[in-house]
Design brief:
It is a single chain. This protein is of the alpha/beta class and 349 residues long. The chain is built from nine helices and ten strands.
């Protein structure tokens, strides 16, 4: 996934944090010109932290989603090692996940497609994993995440060619699906649910050259082109939702249509009703991610739930570094996100 500063069009470079522009313009008229940029950023960060609600007092025992079990899945996925598209690590992860979902009653299929390796030009075999729950229900909810890892920790200040296991950026979404699979067979309501794990989200060696979102774009084109008996009413992408210092803001590109704005309102409203204060109902980052293809190509109203401040907006960032490891994630964060999504799926109209 990537982020940009232009609100009219998502841009590179990857994941550059974008702050709301209104505060910036306000301070431009107030602060001295010489130190304007630094002072504006410092004041904005101070205000952001002051406006952020206190963390919820929820404990694991208060939440029906088993965060410890989800965290165990996260550690098992990371123990496989890097899971780069087309590699042995990805194959082992696919076998692990398929066996898990099928054991719990999910109907699993692999949506296979080829891609070109950005360095060698060789053919890379890709596969999105689709897991269907209650396939007889024609109106459906799409819950999605990517499950590949970036080839290298390119943002690491010490070892940018080292090993990258992607605990938060990669494993957290798949691990939460593993936990939700225990709950989906009993899901009541009008909607069926599909998990989709996208391959090739970031088979990227050069962020200015190599294409992102190969799996979601393929999935979106197939959904649009093929005859089908089901319809996705809503889509929710989860990315980087395991951070121990959880803070999920509304994402800019997830607020562009009336449908996605309402979907944000519904999900953040569920979080508020459950006392999950880590869902913060203000808009923060603009992120290019797999939800763009679902909205723009497949026309599925889809939002991105992403904690892009990893771990905080002020401290060091573990994103795309060798430090994105299980100890930076938490069972409680996984439980909170899983509970909100599960309860929303139950209430969805």
């Amino acid at each position: 996934m990537t982020a940009g500063v232009n609100l009219s069009r998502p841009v590179s470079p990857p994941h550059t944090a974008r702050q709301p522009s209104s505060l910036g313009w306000y301070f431009i008229g107030v602060l001295a010109v010489g130190a304007l940029g630094l002072v504006t950023l410092a004041v904005f960060n101070k205000l952001s932290l002051a406006q952020r609600p206190a963390a919820s007092s929820l404990k694991l025992a208060d939440i029906p989603v088993d965060g410890e079990r989800a965290y165990g899945y996260l550690k098992e996925i990371c123990a496989i090692g890097p899971r780069v598209s087309g590699t042995e690590g990805m194959r082992r992860q696919q076998e692990y996940l398929q066996a898990h979902f099928e054991k719990l009653g999910g109907r699993v299929s692999l949506q296979q497609f080829p891609a070109r390796h950005p360095l060698t030009g060789a053919r890379v075999e890709m596969a999105n994993m689709i897991v269907e729950w209650h396939p007889e229900r024609k109106d459906r909810i799409l819950l999605c995440a990517h499950y590949d890892t970036r080839p290298f920790p390119d943002q690491d200040p010490v070892d940018p060619k080292g090993s990258f296991v992607g605990a938060n950026d990669g494993a957290s979404g798949a691990a939460l699906f593993c936990e939700l699979a225990h709950h989906l067979p009993e899901l009541k309501g009008k909607y069926g649910v599909d998990f989709v794990l996208f391959d090739g989200e970031e088979l990227v060696y050069d962020g200015q050259r190599d294409p992102y979102f190969l799996g979601s774009e393929h999935f979106a084109r197939e959904y649009l082109a093929n005859l089908r008996t089901h319809r996705y009413q809503y889509g929710v992408l989860r990315d980087m939702i395991g951070d121990a210092n959880l803070q999920i803001y509304r994402e800019v590109n997830s607020m562009r249509t009336p449908q996605t704005r309402q979907l944000n309102n519904d999900i953040f409203g569920v979080a508020r009703s459950l006392g999950v204060k880590e869902f913060i109902a203000s808009t923060r980052h603009e992120v290019r991610d797999d939800h763009l293809a679902l909205n723009q190509i497949a026309k599925i109203p889809t939002i991105d739930l992403i904690d892009f401040d990893y771990p905080t907006s002020r401290g060091r960032n573990y994103w795309h570094t060798t430090q994105d490891t299980p100890d930076k994630c938490s069972a409680l964060s996984l439980a909170k996100v899983g509970w909100v999504l599960l309860e929303w799926a139950k209430r969805a109209k």
